[in-house]
Write a structure and sequence with these properties.
DNA-binding, mainly alpha, Arc Repressor Mutant, subunit A, globular, binds manganese (II) ion, homodimer, 62% helix, 2 strands
Chain lengths: 172, 172
Amino acid sequence: MLPYEHIGYIGAMTNSPNDVTPYRLCKADALPPSDQHAQQYAAVRNAHETELLEDYVELIADLLKHQGEARSTDIAARMGVSQATVSKTVTRLKSLGLVSSKPYRSLFLTEKGEAMAAMSHQRHAIVLKFLRALGVSDHTARIDAEGMEHHVSQETLDIMQRFSREQERGGS
Amino acid sequence: MLPYEHIGYIGAMTNSPNDVTPYRLCKADALPPSDQHAQQYAAVRNAHETELLEDYVELIADLLKHQGEARSTDIAARMGVSQATVSKTVTRLKSLGLVSSKPYRSLFLTEKGEAMAAMSHQRHAIVLKFLRALGVSDHTARIDAEGMEHHVSQETLDIMQRFSREQERGGS
DNA sequence: CTAATATTTTAGCCAAGGTTAACTTATTAG
DNA sequence: CTAATAAGTTAACCTTGGCTAAAATATTAG
Ligand SMILES: [Mn+2]
Ligand SMILES: [Mn+2]
Ligand SMILES: [Mn+2]
Ligand SMILES: [Mn+2]
């Protein structure tokens, strides 16, 4: 399958009345049709809604696994925010049925929370491994993966995984 | 340079008193040191602050280039939000010195706005091209790029660009 | 020129995610 | 056991980025 099959939108419909744009001028970087463009931004807004929740449950799962318990003071330190912020977000996580806890006590994940944590963790790992396989330094890969992970579709994840696997074999 | 040099954090310092985690159990996916971990999240929060601004100036530049003017009604349609939302965000862009306009008239970019738009556009283009070169479908690549672009460091961008270039030559 | 329509702005609302400061509860030292 | 310290919560505040409904301005049709 060849890349660059759909470059630009030469034949795309445009409903603006003053569409006198000469065909030749905007070759490869014309605007996508309005509705598709809107879909792109909507997908990003969508990702933003769950981003923080995913990071929290992932971190809580990691702390439970590696430290035995997930205290909100650790979360605050690891996230680099105040404890008050953690407290409020945890309240939200509880109201969403992702986390359970008694006041002043350690945190736990619900079934739903564990499911989300597992998926987030796997996705995070795939992206991180891919970036390292690409040749990105560990430090940078970790930073980029933390943000990118929330904006990578399943299709791209599959391709990233395949790439890492091939790299692993054929890697010099 | 071999990948997977720094896997995990076996030798990392941990200051938690109840650190009885057996060495063998958490091999490849131990938690990074607290301060580095916090840096990751801080970088993401940082990106979130400019994300929308970047998308706006980029879109405004695109509209100016392809349609001759940037009306807030077009922005609203392309972003998939209400005109009121656009109006408010444009007020913010103006207060940040990125956009200029007279009331009820079309929008323009300041020098600063154009600079930001140029950088954002280039970064966006690199990410999109990279995803297509990887083999991701055009539709998915556009969606993923719209979100990923804001979380990709210069180091990774350089590597993506090199990858796309090599793909272009050796591509079957 | 006037009336209808389209565009832009404003006002009032909301949720998320951050802050500091003050308070409450747990844990630890003596 | 009590006092000091650590951890967690709550209250009050802020900015961002959404929304709807209403008002103001521009543009277009007749
Ligand atoms: Mn993650
Ligand atoms: Mn993340
Ligand atoms: Mn962009
Ligand atoms: Mn974007």
